[in-house]
Every structure is written in C-alpha cells, then in structure tokens.
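User: Hey, my collaborator sent me this sequence without any context and asked if I could get a structure. I don't really work with proteins. Can you help?
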Amino acid sequence: MTDSETALVRALAAMCEQYLDGDDEGFDHQCISAREMAAQQLARMGLILRTARGGKWTEAGRKLLES
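Assistant: No problem. I've predicted the 3D structure and written it out in structure-token form, which is a compact way to encode the shape of the chain:
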C-alpha cells in the first residue's frame, strides 16, 4: 500500500473502533450499510474477522490501530 492508502485504511479502522458498538469480543455494525461496507473492506485487508453482524480485530488490525 502507498502511504496515502495506509492513512485512509488507518482512518477507516479508527472510525470503526470509535463509532461501532463493541467490546473485547468484537463490534456490531447494526446492519447499517455504510458500517457493513467498512467491515467488509477491513476484512478483505485482514484487519478484522467477520462475524454475523460485525467483526473482531485481528492482530494486524490491532497493530494498525496502535500505530
């Protein structure tokens, strides 16, 4: 990824972490399409593991959030 792409993905991940309801077990996109699309993109990049209504951060996802 380019630096610009990395910055965009980091911003998307940070927004999901802040605004999607969740806990240590994962987060819930509440079947809202924009939230679902965000979760889908993060899963495609290996940053979350999808669940029925959301996802759980992978180690790579946690590292991105901490960077």
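In plain terms: The longest strand covers residues 48-51. You can pass these tokens on to your collaborator as they are.
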